Predict the structure.
Amino acid sequence: MNETTVFPPPKHFTEQAASASARSMADYERMYAAAASEPERFWAEQAAQLDWSAKWNKVLDWSKPPFAKWFVGGTLNASANCIDRHLSTWRRNKAAILWEGENFEQRTLTYQELHRKVAKLANAMKALGLKKGVRSIIYMPMVPEAAVAMLACARLGMPHSVVFGGFSAEALKTRINDLEATVVLTADASLRRGKEVLLKQNVDEALKDCPSVQHVIVYKRLGRMIEMKQGRDHWWDDLTFGVSEVCQAEPLDSEHPLYVLYTSGTTGKPKGVVHTTGGYMTQALATMKWVFDLKEEDVFWCTADIGWVTGHTYVVYGPLAAGATVLMYEGAPDWPKPDRFWRIIEKYRVSIFYTSPTAIRAFIRQGDDWPNGRDLSSLRLLGTVGEPINPAAWQWYWKTIGKERCPIIDTWWQTETGGIMISPLPAATPMKPGSATKPLPGVALELVDEHGKAIDKGKGFLTIARPWPGMLRTLYKDDERFEQNYWSQYPGRYFTGDTAVRDEDGYLWVLGRNDDVIKVSGHRISGVEIESVLVANKNVAEAAVVGAPHDIKGEAIHAFVTLKANVQPSDAVAHELSDWIVKEIGALARPERIHFVAALPKTRSGKIMRRLMREIVTTHKVAGDTSTLEDYSVVVQLSQQGKEEDEILGAKAGNKK
Ligand code: ATP
Ligand code: MG
């Protein structure tokens, strides 16, 4: 994957970069060095970009690692920082949110309108007796009210937990109970691929078994007839009708929890990641400005659902704190046709577009006619997050969407980190397709070998050697698992769980999770590297590569491949792909078997669940946690197919089981 092609930032982009941006690698090096030599001073300068009701008296308290406190003694409110502070400026009538429903409905909320909606909901919740410290669950579609709900909770100091609207009643129930939430904010229903998703019905189902919940606030999205339980359920519109439009934001301790977010669970049982206020908001605002080169006139579209951390930091808290215009879209990317995203970009003149590799691979599969049929000239910056982006997909994004004019920021971060940690700075950093490039200023990123020794070059575990403001503070009600999961491997270091390579130029290539590295005959092979080679083949749409135990080699490589729409699976194609891998990487990487599949199992945030595929090739069944799986039938098909293939192979070898 050590592509030699380097793409310097387009000249016109650098010339027009916003003033907050680094414009050269020298700028970046200066910032990075300043942050490394005096981290507290550096982060204090960033924190000063927020509005504080009382200033902190200590930047960092790291006396009881791994439990950090940032901006100790300071008080502020995230909601006030996202809204109120813009009201005294010309931005008061700037569009804060541009919204489009899947059925093409449109709404625009200015900062003043957003303020009124948030204040009214906060007042209504107060009237129900909800207050600081009480936990809320937000189970909403992608409508402006989802952001309103988050900001109203933040305004009162009620930690929220957003549960992705695509999750089942069961997944919702687990989260409500873990959090012991008092209130659930939801909607009657929502639209996804033209179908109605009955959110309130799922809430009712979940609440059969959630004793902590006293109130349910229901936003009327589609106006469906639903059951309303007397005394417990309230229509949002009724509750806020005639309520005061003024609600003072509660000044909160910098370490007051802002939200708990349960991670997607690619690696196991969901964990309740806790983020607090001052440090998180500092990281959100600073990265928003550095990485997205944000300007007043930008139309900023991060396609993530608010159910994921990306939706928290780069749909709500980061861009609104920066006073940006945020685009929000309710529905599916391919509805009613595969060009819906391009159509939205054309219509709203979107200038910054931030999406995921999984979405990009789906677009490639649908063909270039869809984006080519739309005017994408408003775009000036493209981004990706969530998984490593295969170089072939990067190249497509660069050419077909960005028309070789728009820098691509490949941003590496985690739910736990709160904000972007590794990324190009678009006006400064030369890009290498497939590399997230370099750590941001203030991020003490280090690669270590298995003994915890820092290494300059080559392959190692990705760790962070110093606390940073946006870091998770703990796992909800589980300090022990927090210490165990992230801090026990190498004392004093945050363990990301990812493996990466640093090349000659100091560029980082994230290879994925440590567990996803395959050990064949004593060699450590990156599944991601093989996947990238497969995806670069003309026949392949998507690929996932995992290891299965093997008597002789230790582990054997299994490749799961979805082919492009016009290609049929056959032994010939399998051989071709095998030879292609050997040619591109070497004989060591030759797969034991190539499995052609209709779809790969993914989390609901679109990430490939290699853990499940590993289980399938090992045991032919799935016993691990599947609550975050997007489509269970994919797993059923895969394990069925695995069994059949085994039987056929067994028969061929003459050793029927
Ligand atoms: P869980 O931790 O519950 O298994 P998850 O790790 O999928 O879920 P996230 O916090 O959303 O949940 O994802 C972070 C992970 O995604 C990173 O640790 C990394 O493996 C991967 N990732 C994110 N962005 C990138 C990127 N730009 N390049 C490579 N990998 C990335
Ligand atoms: Mg993770």
